[in-house]
C-alpha cells in the first residue's frame, strides 16, 4: 500500500498515476526545485510585469523567439494568443473582446486540427473557420487538407491561422506559415504536449510560427497552472496588455518596458480578456525554474528509465490470464513508451472497461489509460510512476482479474 498523502488527510483518496501527464488527475509531478522556488517566491512581493519580462527573456533564449509570456496553461496561452491576433495594439478592440464587432476575428484551421482545446480560441472572441475534409481519417479518400484550401479561406476577416502540432499533422507547418505570411496573417501553434524533445522548443518558431503554446505542467514539470507562449514581440506585447492586471493609476502606470510600451499603446488598457486567467508570482517563478531545469535535463536517460519501467510492467502483466501486452511502437510514442494491454474477456472473465473502472474505484485510486477501451485495450504509462508505485499498480491491475 503506498504511504498516505496530504489528500488522505483531507479525506480524499489520492491517485496512483499510471496514465501519464493528465490534467484531470493533477498533471505531472512538479519538480521539487520548482516547489522550493515557489515557496521562496511567496515570501516577498514583486511587480508581475517585471517577472513576466524576466520569463520572457528565458523563453526567448530557449525557443529562439523574440519574446515569451507565461500563461495559466497552454489553453490559456492559446486564448491570449488569439486575443493578441484579433486586437493587436488597438486599445478599443482589447476592451471590447470577446465582442469582435468591426475587427477581423476569423481563425482558419484545417478541419483535421480541430480539438476540444480550440474552445480557447473562441473564448477570446474568434470564430473558427474549418477547411478541408476528413477523408483520409474516414477512409473515404486519400487527402485531408490541401495547402490551397487554407489559402482560399484566408480573407479580410482572418485574424490568424491556427495549427495543432503533432509529428503527423498535415500540411507541414512551414508550408502553412508561408501561406499565412504571404497573406499577411500570423500562425498560432498549439504544441502543448510536444516537449520533449528539447529541440521542439525552437522547431516551430524556426518553421515560421508567430506564436507557439506549450504546457508548463506536462513534461516541463512546472506548476500545473502554467503555459508557455513564445513568439513575435508585438503579439506578446498585446498578450501582456490584455493579461496583466490593469487596475492602475494612469500617472504612475509604468509596466516593464521590455513587455509593454505605454507610448505605443497610447493609454492604459482596461482589465482585459486575459484577466480571469491570472498567473501568480509563485507560478511564474516555479515555471522559470522548471524550464531552466528542463533544458538541462538528460532526456535520453529519462527515456531509457521510462522504457525499462514499461518493459518490466509489460512482462509482469503479460503473465495475467487473458492479458496480452506490447509497447507502443517507436513512431507512435509521444513522450514515453506505453504498455498496451489487450484484454480477452472470455479468458480474463472481465473486460478492459471493467479493469479500468475497478481500478478507479480503489483507494488509492489507480488511473490507467482508457483511450483505447473500444478496442478492448487499456494502457499503462511509466512517466508518472515511481518503481514502487509501478509494482503496486501491477498488483492492483492483476487483482481486478482474480
Ligand atoms: C494538454 C493540451 C492542451 C492544454 O494544456 P494546458 O497546459 O493543460 O492548458 C492544449 N492542447 C493540447 C494539444 C494538449 O495536449
From TrEMBL:
The protein's required cofactors: pyridoxal 5'-phosphate
For this protein, the record's InterPro entries field holds: Aminotrans_V_dom (IPR000192), PyrdxlP-dep_Trfase (IPR015424), PyrdxlP-dep_Trfase_major (IPR015421)
Q: Tell me which UniProt keywords the record has, alphabetically.
A: Aminotransferase, Plasmid, Pyridoxal phosphate, Transferase
The terms under GO molecular function for this entry are: L-seryl-tRNA(Sec) selenium transferase activity; transaminase activity
The residues covered by the Aminotransferase class V domain are 143-240
Matching entries from Pfam families are given as: Aminotran_5
**Gene3D superfamilies reported for this sequence:** Type I PLP-dependent aspartate aminotransferase-like (Major domain)
Regions that span the bilayer: none
What start and end residues bound the annotated signal peptide? none
On whether Magnesium is a keyword of this UniProt record, the answer is: no
Which SUPFAM superfamilies does the record cross-reference, listed alphabetically? PLP-dependent transferases (SSF53383)
Q: Which PANTHER family match?
A: L-SERYL-TRNA(SEC) SELENIUM TRANSFERASE
This chain belongs to the protein called: Aminotransferase class V-fold PLP-dependent enzyme
Source organism per entry reads Halorussus limi
Amino acid at each position: 500500500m503506498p504511504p498516505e498523502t496530504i489528500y488522505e488527510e483531507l479525506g480524499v483518496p489520492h491517485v496512483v498515476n499510471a496514465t501519464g501527464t493528465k490534467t484531470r488527475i493533477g498533471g505531472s509531478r512538479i519538480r521539487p526545485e520548482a516547489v522550493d522556488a515557489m515557496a521562496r517566491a511567496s515570501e516577498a512581493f514583486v511587480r508581475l510585469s517585471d517577472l513576466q519580462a524576466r520569463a520572457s527573456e528565458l523563453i526567448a533564449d530557449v525557443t529562439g523567439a523574440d519574446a515569451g509570456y507565461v500563461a495559466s496553461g497552454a489553453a490559456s496561452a492559446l486564448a491570449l494568443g488569439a486575443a493578441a491576433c484579433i486586437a493587436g495594439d488597438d486599445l478599443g478592440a482589447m476592451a471590447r473582446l470577446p465582442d469582435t464587432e468591426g475587427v477581423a476575428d476569423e481563425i482558419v484551421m484545417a478541419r483535421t486540427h480541430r480539438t476540444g482545446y480550440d474552445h480557447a480560441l473562441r473564448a477570446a472572441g474568434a470564430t473558427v473557420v474549418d477547411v478541408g475534409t476528413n477523408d483520409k481519417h474516414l477512409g473515404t479518400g486519400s487527402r485531408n487538407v490541401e495547402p490551397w484550401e487554407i489559402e482560399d479561406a484566408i480573407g479580410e476577416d482572418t485574424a490568424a491561422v491556427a495549427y495543432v502540432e503533432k509529428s503527423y499533422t498535415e500540411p507541414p507547418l512551414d508550408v502553412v506559415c508561408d501561406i499565412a505570411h504571404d497573406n499577411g496573417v500570423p500562425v498560432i501553434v498549439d504544441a502543448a504536449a510536444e516537449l520533449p524533445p528539447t529541440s521542439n522548443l525552437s522547431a516551430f518558431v524556426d518553421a515560421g510560427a508567430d506564436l507557439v503554446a506549450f504546457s508548463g505542467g506536462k513534461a516541463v514539470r512546472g506548476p500545473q497552472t502554467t503555459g508557455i507562449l513564445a513568439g513575435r514581440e508585438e503579439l506578446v506585447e498585446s498578450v501582456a496588455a490584455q493579461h496583466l492586471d490593469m487596475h492602475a493609476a494612469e500617472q504612475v502606470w509604468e509596466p516593464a518596458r521590455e513587455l509593454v510600451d505605454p507610448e505605443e499603446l497610447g493609454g492604459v488598457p482596461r482589465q482585459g480578456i486575459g484577466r480571469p486567467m491570472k498567473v501568480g508570482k509563485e507560478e511564474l517563478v516555479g515555471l522559470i525554474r522548471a524550464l531552466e531545469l528542463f533544458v538541462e535535463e538528460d532526456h535520453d536517460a529519462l527515456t531509457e528509465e521510462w522504457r525499462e519501467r514499461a518493459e518490466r510492467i509489460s512482462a509482469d502483466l503479460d503473465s495475467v490470464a487473458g492479458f496480452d501486452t506490447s509497447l507502443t511502437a517507436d513512431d507512435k510514442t509521444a513522450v514515453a513508451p506505453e504498455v498496451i494491454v489487450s484484454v480477452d474477456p472470455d479468458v480474463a472473465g472481465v473486460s478492459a472497461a471493467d479493469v479500468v473502472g475497478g481500478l478507479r474505484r480503489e483507494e488509492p485510486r489507480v488511473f490507467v489509460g482508457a483511450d483505447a477501451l473500444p478496442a478492448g485495450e487499456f494502457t499503462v504509462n511509466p512517466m508518472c510512476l515511481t518503481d514502487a508505485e509501478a509494482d503496486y499498480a501491477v498488483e492492483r491491475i492483476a487483482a481486478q482479474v482474480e
